[in-house]
Amino acid sequence: MDSELTGRTADLIVCAALGDPMSTARYEGLCAGSANSRVSGVMVCYAPTLDLLRRAALEKKNLIIAREHPYFLHGGLYYSYGTDGLEAAMRDDPVVRAKREIINANQLMVYRYASAWDQFKPKAQSLALAQALGLKPLPWLPTDRSRGVVCDLPRTTLADLAQTAADRLKAFSSRTVGDPVSSVTRVAVLAGETDPTPALARLLADPKIDGAIAGAGGTVDEVDGAIAYFQDVMASGRKIAMLAIGHLPSEAPGCAAMAKWLRGVFPALPVEYWETPDPSWIPRS
């Protein structure tokens, strides 16, 4: 790899490897820093937190490829995003200013590839989540472009799966929708946001599915109706329950998978995946 590789050139290389997604992927691209900076190393993460940016500066990994935006927004240099004045309001926020200062002082470049990655490999995030939980997804048709995967497993309970998520993913704020001790033998696995349709409804069309493992949780999913939709599925008479492990823990395994893929895109550069720990937890007696 050319030692003079810049952020702009790296972006072109990634986009070409992803199938040139910028014409269709929304809110992607350079979010912070100068695309003209030279690349010294690549760090992949779920969210470019201040702690990770400090570490990147210290370890000279100045190309940060993230699933989330550094300034708590969507958007980038390629697309604007309707934030109802939020971006302008946060321009002088001290937290935003601290991140901007460390990015500029160390010639860091933060690129966001979320929709682009999802379009390139629609099931990548859910597949990685299932594998991280020790589950083996059933085969799917090549024409299936939905996000979720389906896994058969020995009869267990949602509570046991929650413990597995805590052990394997360090997800300590999982919630269950439905009876936590209900037994499951076939689960739908859906990383990230759990919109009612088409993602969740399409998966639950399989009548053998008696459990779901999802990112879910948080305001977006509850406002947009995923939890309410699932409650109505149960109220309609179906014996099923959901384990909601949280957005971050559900997406993290897929970010690690993307880092592995990027090592093939940049074979001459050090590419590392850095974990963004789940900050949430639920007190338990």
Describe the 3D structure:
The chain is α/β, with parallel strands linked by helices. Helix 2 links the parallel strand 2 (42-45) and strand 3 (63-66). The protein has eleven helices and ten strands. Helix 2 (50-59) runs parallel beside helix 4 (94-105). The chain folds into two domains: 7-117, NIF3 (NGG1p interacting factor 3)-like (Udp-n-acetylmuramoylalanyl-d-glutamate--2,6- Diaminopimelate Ligase, Chain: A, domain 1), CATH 3.40.1390.30; 121-248, Udp-n-acetylmuramoylalanyl-d-glutamate--2,6- Diaminopimelate Ligase, Chain: A, domain 1. The mean pLDDT is 87. It starts with 6 loop residues before the first helix and ends in a 12-residue tail after the last strand. Strands 1-4-3-2-10 form a five-stranded mixed sheet, with helices on both faces. A five-stranded mixed sheet has the order 5-7-8-9-6.
Strand content: 15-25%
Q: Give the count of structural domains.
A: 2
CATH class division of the largest domain: Alpha Beta
Structural class: alpha/beta
Task: Outline the low-pLDDT stretches.
Answer: none
Q: Which second-level CATH architecture of the largest domain applies? A: 3-Layer(aba) Sandwich
Average pLDDT across residues? 87
Note the overall shape: globular
Would you count the extended β strands for me?
10
Counting H and I runs of at least 4 residues, what is the number of helices?
Answer: 11
Task: State the strand order across the main sheet.
Answer: 1-4-3-2-10
* N-to-C order of helices and strands: HEEHEHHEHHEHEEHEHHEHE
Name the CATH superfamily assignment of the largest domain: NIF3 (NGG1p interacting factor 3)-like
Distance between the termini: 54 Å
- Helical percent range? 25-40%
The major β-sheet equals:
5 strands, mixed
